[in-house]
Amino acid sequence: MSTVNNSNVSTDSGFYIRPHSERVLFAQVLVGIFLYVNSLMIFTFLKKDVFREDTRYILFALTLFSDSGLLVTCDLALLGIYYEYPIPMIPCCILCTLMNWLNDCTPLTLVAMCLERYVAICMPLRHADISNSRNRKIGILIIWTVSSMTSLIGIFGFLAVNPSHILLSYVMCTVDVLLTFAWQAQLRAVLLQIYFFCMFVIIVFTYIKILMAARAASSDNKKSTYKSLRTVALHAFQLFLCLVQLLTPYVELAVLQIDFMLFVDVRYANFVVFIIVPRCLSPLIYGLRDEKFFLVLKHHTLFGLPKVVSAVFDARQCNKTRRLHTDS
């Protein structure tokens, strides 16, 4: 039975070398900016009842939470590799399982958001009935359950095929640690390919349906319909980046056979392009393109300063008007 190269288990194996500090610093800056923006958006979501009662914004908040969690866990793993700091196997298994779960959660949430737009545009009279509180809870539970399947299969498969004493070892923690045998990596790849094929079909279906609705819509509704169409297209691009991420381990493995330094460069580039960048698109799609959410976000970002300035200006104008009437 063939095995996956787990040379990262040993700290003196030479599999990892400390990358350039500028790269790690650049990654920390990107992650810090991302988490700051996400924190502002989560705060904005929690402060307004109208957002907490809207399915579209609830799913958006779900992506913010899962993306933020994924960035934090991936960044912890990156820092552990950079500082060559081995950790016990049990915490590493928990961290890897959490990373896999959060990584699979975002694409499923994107599909749910596309379906919500499809119902809102193509079935507006039934949108309120379908997007009720009960169905939202069921939908979120389905997303969490389905996205956890591959990570649970991975951790249980790891525990089943490895001796118990391996849990007492120390490792340089990456998701590759759980893939002891080649068939585990192949099984995970097959499951993810099935997931992404189903999600791709759903997104294409919703895009076509919304496109048909946009062409048949009246001039008053065309603007909102085409905006939803662009939103679905952006979600499809996010899903494409997540799909490409499935291929990165195979590319990294092939590059590793050629040149190790090139492998380090490719792995770092994959982290930035296929982990960080797709997670930056959700805030762009809903946080900046949605006028209602953007206005509230702008208010909290500037700590309510425009409102204070406006109130002071109005007060001064009122006092000036009063003085003019008094003088006259």
TrEMBL record:
Annotated transmembrane regions: 25-46, 58-81, 138-159, 166-183, 189-208, 229-248, 268-288
GO cellular component, one term: membrane
Main location: membrane
Molecular function GO labels: G protein-coupled receptor activity; odorant binding; olfactory receptor activity
Source taxon at top rank: Eukaryota
Signal peptide: none
Positions of the G-protein coupled receptors family 1 profile domain: 37-286
Localization (cell): Membrane
Gene3D superfamilies listed in its UniProt record: Rhodopsin 7-helix transmembrane proteins
Keywords: Membrane, Transmembrane, Transmembrane helix
Name of the protein in question: Odorant receptor 131-2-like
Organism: Chanos chanos
UniProt gene name: LOC115815100
